[in-house]
Specification:
The complex is a heterodimer. Chain A is an alpha+beta fold. In chain A, 16% of the residues lie in helices and 28% in strands. In chain A, strands 12-19-16-17-14-13-20 form a 7-stranded mixed β-barrel. The C terminus of chain A is likely disordered. The two termini of chain B are 31 Å apart. Classes of the chains: A alpha+beta, B alpha+beta. At the A-B interface, strand 15 and helix 4 of A face strand 2, helix 1, strand 3 and strand 4 of B.
Chain lengths: 339, 241
Amino acid sequence: MSSHLLAVRPGPLITVQDLGRPGFQRFGVAEGGVMDRRAHCLGAALLGQPPALASLEMTSTGGIFRAGPEPVHVVVTGAPMSLEVEGYNHPAGHTVRIAPDTEFEIGATTTAVYGYLSVSGGVDTEPVIGSRSTHLRAGLGGVNGRNIQAGDLIPVGPDASTVALGVTLPTTSDTETFRFVWGLHADAFAANARAMLKEEAFEITALRDRMGMGLKAPRPLRAPLSLSLPSSPVVDGDIQVPGDGHPVILLADRQPTGGYPRIATIIQADRDRFAQQPTGTLVRFAEVSLDKATDLLFEYRRELAELVTSAGGSTEPALRALWQQNLISGFTAGGQEAD
Amino acid sequence: MQLKPAVIPTGESALTVVFGDSVELGLNNRVLAMDDDLLRDPIEGVIESIPAVSSLLLRFDPGVISREELTTAVISRAATGALNRQTGRSWQIPVRYGGEGGPDLSEVADVLGLSESATIEAHSALEMQVLMLGFAPGFAYMGVAGSRWDLERRRQLHPKVPAGSVLVAVRQTALSGTPIPTGWHCIARTPVPTFRPLHEDPFLLRPGDTVSFEAISERDFTRLAEHIDAGTFTLVPMEDE
């Protein structure tokens, strides 16, 4: 039976997210979806359900929720936010059964940014343009296109899951180095700008959201040619350099096209971890070849596949959705039909 | 004589096919021709094609096709594939110029050295190609107008213009599908929704469509808006003659 979660006192920025709405960037619609795919997929796997189901993405703080008239299983993944219910404190990564009409509280985090609350049956809001993901700027998806507010009754799907006990969440890696491949306009940058990217540390600023993360460079990076670029499509993880010379990394809710020069792209295998870096962290970048990046992508996919299967979750359809191979049979053109 | 496009890796699972670096109809037509070609005759492993003004992004699955194989296939297609793109649909979009929906009409007229009514006449005479959509859902860039329309962006942003705003700058006209901030000049508004997220066909305009604007009165705007709200009016493309 479906149920709901009542948001009693939710944290300030919680949104419904799933794997996004790929295929509509040609219409100006951001791809969106969870900022940390690994964490979301782990949550789904622990509840034995496909990662296509939506979770609640909690930014820094979880808050207080109450189960509806049906019991639910929940688990927190991503940021190590603990869950307290009926006097017991459960670490993130442990599945917890919440009895009907029972309140639970999810804590805060400083060592990472995004915690994911997965719930048995998935968050069941009405999909918009093929996804439940919330795009705040465009007001699409989730609960009325906005963040969760106190009093929201968040619909939850019927519980058909096979719940695992839980895992110990992987500890946040000490490495704050992120691998990249050179970007579309790398050659337009001076050699010393390219060297700076590889050799120096950059600070993660407070100018960050689901669209992107702004960094403070030790010195402004400059493209020596005055680049007057028409807008071109960007990819997740692109490092663009606006006029002030401080890089911005483009993320889930990025606009599909951009006109600023792009020097590099963070590899997909490192992208989840990057989005989880707290403000103030000093990060470094390391160059890898395209071939190496491709190998790492396959390794990342295998890791996600193992997450899904080892925790008893559904496999093939979930994975295909993950690799976006199964949006529409063959090539996707969003809403267009071949004549 | 068509030059080979540059094919540049963009991350480990996408390629950007670059036909040029300026806003020109000829380049845009080559983008749209390749996009059409891929739609009708897909390359296995290509997951998504995103056309822009003079380049096209192809996202692919390196587990199905390698970067090298796809690059070769793309260059081969560009040389031998469809050089003509499929004709898009033609739209005539009713708009109210000036007034509350077009606060910058007068300043644009000043820059053009024309009266407001001559500016309206000049803009509504334009027949433009939808070059791409981007920036926001349903946000359509159209062009390419003559050099007199090469207006610089405004010094001051409009913090928010509503959906249906007609914006001009840099020889292009843009039409917003959602409320957005903009540094372009806002000269008109249409009551016709170009982005309907809950509709089965959410996007009115596609790259390659042709658009011109038709000036209507304030009264007709209000009437049209009422019909649209009541569901008794839908804009349809123009028939071929």
